Fold this sequence. Notes:
By secondary structure, the chain is α+β, with helices and mostly antiparallel strands. It contains 14 helices and seven strands. The protein has three domains: 5-133 and 203-259, Gyrase A, domain 2, CATH 3.30.1360.170; 134-201; 266-300, no CATH class. The strands form two sheets. Strands 1-2-3-7-4 form a five-stranded antiparallel sheet. A two-stranded antiparallel sheet has the order 5-6. Pathway: Pyrimidine metabolism; dTTP biosynthesis.
Amino acid sequence: MPLTQEAQAEIDAARASARPTLRAVSEGMEAQLYTAHPVLDHGFVRVIDYMGDDSAIVQAARVSYGAGTKHVSNDEGLIRYLMRHWHSTPFEMCEVKFHVKLPVFVARQWIRHRTANVNEYSARYSILDREFYIPEPGQLAAQSTVNNQGRGAVLEGAEAARVLEMLKGDAMRAYDHYEAMLSQDGQQGLARELARMNLPANVYTQWYWKTDLHNLFHFLRLRADAHAQYEIRVYAELMCKLVADWVPLAYAAFADYRMGGVSVSAKGVEVIRRRLAGEAVTQETSGMSKGEWREFVEVFG
Length: 301
């Protein structure tokens, strides 16, 4: 279980304490506040706070008073226009703060998105829990033969069992030594800030991560993509569902233009025009590299 009984009791108490407010409220996000949604084997994502809703995007774009127009279709059209033409500042008017529990190696990949405010659990001050990410058998895969940063065929049989046993054994042994080194039980021991360096990258950490909607969409476009690493993708996919509840009009536009759309180069546009004119275009006559052509064909055939 990703949550202790004490943590769940705190969440239940927070959700039971409703207060009136004059600020913009998203009913969908109110239903999600504080709830811990499990991810992987010990992780979770929960929304701690948020600011703004779909009408806040429209209001900022029009620099108007109060909510958007009385016609939802007008607001939706404007939001889709803003998304379609890559406007950013109206989406920056909405913010959200997440509490995330995740493996350290996922956190180090995640922190590459430098457009958020982050405060992480301190292993200098506190002792980390004995919790490690151990992949499900279906995620134990060999190195891809065509992608230097991807996975290939899933391991099976004795090979899968061998790798899984090493992952579990090394994690437990490292934590045993971590505990043995700490300054506790009457021994002088090692300072926490030093003992932590012995822990593996699959140990779990936690942080508060606050960002605006524009930069959150950028994070989700990259990390919820099918090519993203599975362990960070499952976090992003869950966050997509939370954002869809929070700002449904903005998320629908994002899903259409960013997640479902593609960016085509000038060469790609020219190839499409030539194809529409009846010409049989090949990689050699397209002006594209082999990599560009492969990606083009994946989308347009």
